[in-house]
């Protein structure tokens, strides 16, 4: 079994069980305890889990965005550049709050003629304060709190429904063929669901670690995803083939 396939299986076990023993992983993967030990060490180093006596648990619901922006940076940067290539001047875009959409904001700030609607303070600062001033930024109102620095809640959802965007560019916690795009936090999922519903096309930005991963709250089905932008490493995931068949188009970089 390939290393990345083992990682995906361990992520899936943690997502569904919230705590998994080393013995359970050994049995599920059919590998040695030493292999599992090394895999858990690597995944812990990447900030994806915390080792405990006899097994592992999630770090918590999801690592804070301040930590996530420093993980798998080169992969997120490649995804952001590819996603920016799908954008045209004159378009209106929804961006939700996430580490990958934050990197995407850096790329969009280099473009012009865009209207960017977001609930993310980080995205707003990057796009709204870009030196060229060539893009319009609309910051959605709402309550602030939760795991990311962003607005959410009923006011945010109501404001989203005022707009129609050409593209919704969203970054989920996980995506697979059966459950589609998922987030851990309910309020974040509600924002993403509203953005997806009010956009002509949905572009999902998901690095290889998110392929085949299912979190707590689903916000759109796989067949609703027009473009899935990911890394070529995602092709190693056992969930990749089914997901590729379910979505409109995969852009792997």
Explain the layout of strands and helices.
Elements: H1 3-17, E1 20-21, H2 22-29, H3 33-45, E2 50-52, E3 55-57, H4 65-68, H5 73-84, E4 92-95, H6 99-108, E5 115-118, H7 121-128, E6 136-139, E7 143-144, E8 151-152, H8 154-160, E9 165-170, E10 174-176, E11 180-183, H9 186-197, E12 199-205, E13 217-220, E14 227-230, H10 240-246, E15 249-252
Helix pairs in contact: 5-6, 6-7
Report on this model:
The chain is of the alpha/beta class. The chain contains ten helices and 15 strands. The protein has helices at 3-17, 22-29, 33-45, 65-68, 73-84, 99-108, 121-128, 154-160, 186-197, 240-246, and strands at 20-21, 50-52, 55-57, 92-95, 115-118, 136-139, 143-144, 151-152, 165-170, 174-176, 180-183, 199-205, 217-220, 227-230, 249-252. Strand 10 (174-176) and strand 11 form a beta hairpin. Helix 5 (73-84) packs across helix 6 (99-108) and helix 6 runs parallel beside helix 7. The relative contact order is 0.13.
């Amino acid at each position: 079994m390939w290393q990345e396939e083992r990682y995906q299986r361990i992520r899936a076990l943690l997502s569904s069980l919230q705590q998994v023993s080393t013995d359970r992983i050994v049995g599920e993967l059919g590998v040695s305890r030493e292999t599992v030990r090394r895999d858990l060490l690597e995944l812990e180093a990447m900030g994806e889990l915390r080792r405990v006596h006899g097994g592992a648990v999630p770090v918590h619901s999801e690592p804070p965005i301040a930590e996530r922006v420093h993980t798998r940076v080169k992969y997120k940067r490649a995804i952001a550049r590819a996603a920016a290539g799908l954008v045209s001047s004159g378009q209106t875009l929804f961006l939700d709050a996430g580490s990958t959409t934050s990197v995407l904001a850096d790329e969009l700030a280099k473009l012009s003629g865009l209207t960017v609607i977001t609930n993310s303070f980080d995205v707003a600062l990057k796009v709204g304060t870009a030196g060229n001033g060539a893009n319009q930024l609309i910051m959605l109102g709402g309550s602030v709190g939760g795991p990311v620095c962003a607005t959410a809640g009923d006011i945010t959802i109501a404001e989203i429904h005022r707009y129609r965007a050409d593209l919704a560019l969203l970054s989920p916690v996980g995506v697979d063929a059966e459950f589609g795009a998922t987030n851990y936090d309910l309020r974040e999922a509600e924002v993403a669901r509203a953005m997806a519903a009010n956009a002509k096309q949905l572009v999902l930005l998901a690095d290889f670690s998110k392929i085949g991963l299912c979190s707590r709250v689903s916000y759109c089905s796989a067949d609703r995803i027009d473009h899935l932008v990911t890394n070529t490493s995602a092709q190693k995931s056992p969930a990749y083939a089914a997901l590729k068949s379910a979505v409109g188009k995969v852009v792997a970089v």
